[in-house]
Amino acid sequence: MTSTWQHAERTRGIARRLARDYTYVLPGFPIALFSFSLLLVMTVVSAATAIVWVGALLMPLTLVVASGFAELDRTRLRSWGAAAPPVAYQPLGSGVKDRLRVLADPRRWLDLVFEMLITMPLRLITFTVAVVWSLAGPAAVTYFFWSLFLPDQGVFIRALNAVNPALAPPTAVTQYALDAGVFFLLGLAVLATLPAVIHALAAADVSLSTALLASGRRDAATTDLTSRAYGSYRTASFSPAAWSWIGTGFAAVVLFFVGWPVTAAIHSVNVVFALILVMVHCGAVVLTLHRPWIGLALSLGAAGGIMVAAVDSGAAPWPWPVTSLITQSAVLTVAALARPWYLAVSAWCAGAVLTLVALLGVAEMPDGAMANSIVYASVTAGVVVIGVLVRIWILNAGRLEAAERTSAEQDRRRKELQERNRIARELHDVVAHSMSVISVQAATAQYRIPGMSSTALREFDEIAGSSRQALGEMRMLLSILRGEDEVPTAPEPGLEDIDGLIDATRASGTTITYSGLNLTEDAHAPAATGLAAYRIVQEALSNALRHAPSATVKVDVAPETHSTGRQLRISVMNGPSPKEIVDPAPGAGLGLSGIRERASAVGGSVSTGSTPDGGFVVRAVLPL
Q1: What positions does the domain Putative sensor occupy (predicted)?
Q2: What pTM value is reported for the model?
């Protein structure tokens, strides 16, 4: 019964996932087709009318529309189950000037590129495969029926006859049975793999879309174009890891499919040689991102190879054909944006030297070669200068953003510190009032209660002294929190004060067995260690008095020599309380945390736990 229920639940899960994948994949292509058509028209009209300033007003609207389609894609990603957090756009504003600022929002430009160049081919592929795979299964399973209406032999039988007619069955009935059986099995295989295929299509679309539409990362180790060029600069919605590789890869593919036929046809370069040289030249655009020196060397080598192969064709322009010039400009653009300025300048100088060598190496200079060389030098120099300036501008913007983030973080910490100080002052006022009342009542008890014994008077004097000491320490801590210049300079307690602490605690009626230090020989310790030891013993005794009143407490404080050096070993152990605690003293559990923090601050360690007889022990080891 359980197995049947699990199988049914698994089947329902597969069906739900398949429905979710279909809901994401199938509407994607119609949406992409509509967005591509609309944005293409708006972009072309904006570019064509930019000269009369109409395009300057239409282009912001185009970017806003592209962002709207991108938000629709993010909504679809979230409905599928992907993590697509909202991105931050620059506000539109109400005036014309504010609307024009949309042109400076990189996220909207990335949305435009994504909706125009990425979604259409991506979702055409996923939609086509999904539709074909979905229809192929039922069509193959029902092939035995609709194949009867085909005028010729079955598809599989025709394939056998094309390979070897002897493989086909001799009779029409056996041919039909074989043909229908093969297609039926193929249909079952297609239907069985349908959920996995549709899910793979949806997952591929989601992965790429999420990478290109998600918020930017602040990963200092990113090695893409933007992180190399921009350092710590990231806009709130810039995704450099994906866009740098997608952008350079797309440019390389376009340049390859344009440059290969142009180089082979117009400049009479062998088709295979043209394929290799143009592929290397275009691949250098992407390689410059990750291995800039190798990419630049390959680009110059491929450009030189094209010069040598095309010199005898007599076709102009030479030595830099138009496609080679554009590709080399793309390589230099990547180098200028992604790397320090000297790399792009070095690459430009190497290209100029290559051009000069090509001009001097030919017996007869082709027509227009000098003009072409000047054009190359001018265009690539402009590309390098603009790229370097853009890199510097973005680096400065990144530093400004980092400074603003640092300032905001400091402001947040300042406000947090102010709030903590306010809370500390309020706590001090409450506790100080209570401690002051205790001190006054204890100090005036002998005047308010006549006939007190000397033992009672001594008890009240010790209570008054302890409360005054606690009040003074709290005021000192408050002065530190307030950041006051004049902080109380009372001496901090140390190892030599532990004996007095034990005596004061014994005066409360607690039985304490104390094995202390020889103050003349063992009390030589750093001030921080002495203070930590005193506070640890003090807090451990407070815990014993609070949670096990009237219990016997054993305190051991002794130095010892260890392989790592001299250590101070502290042990405070209390037995079980001899009577049931009706109203136990409240505790927040912060005392033991404070003990551990004090020990850790001086390089020590603390262990706590219950004893077999129901008591509790605190052990600490501090370096001397």
Answers
A1: 24-213
A2: 0.45
